[in-house]
Amino acid sequence: MSALSEGPYVDQVATIFERLGAEPQQAKTMAKQLLKRAEQLSAEQDVTPVEALQELLQKAVQGRQGFSPSEKEGQGPDSSK
Q1: 67-72 contacts at long range (C-beta below 8 A, 24 or more positions apart)
Q2: Nearest CA to 54 among 13, 5, 21?
Q3: Residue 13 belongs to what H/E stretch?
Q4: Of 29, 8, 7, which Cα lies nearest the Cα of 17?
Q5: What are the sequence ranges of the domains in the chain?
Q6: How far out from the chain centre does Cα 43 lie?
Q7: Among residues 60, 68, 51, which one has the least CA distance to residue 27?
Q8: DSSP readout, 28-73?
Q9: pTM of the model
Q10: Nearest by Cα to 5 from 44, 53, 43, 46
Q11: What is the tens place of the pLDDT at every residue in 38-81?
């Protein structure tokens, strides 16, 4: 298994969550969970852990911006206005 959930990755991903509005301790917890899930997806989908992490981070950022998983890129909750 990859070492994504160890080392500097936790702090780097936590910083992203903090910038999205999470409290520092919550951000660290979220980062650990996301990194663990990236490792799982890597094994399940035959992609690198970094590719899985990138996909998960994109979903997290889009979710924070109000996009749902079913909405296509470029279409957000305000696109009908």
Answers
A1: none
A2: 13
A3: helix 8-19
A4: 29
A5: 22-64
A6: 17
A7: 60
A8: HHHHHHHHHHHHHHHHHHT--HHHHHHHHHHHHHHHHTT--TTSPT
A9: 0.75
A10: 53
A11: 999 999 999 999 999 999 999 998 888 887 766 655 555 555 54
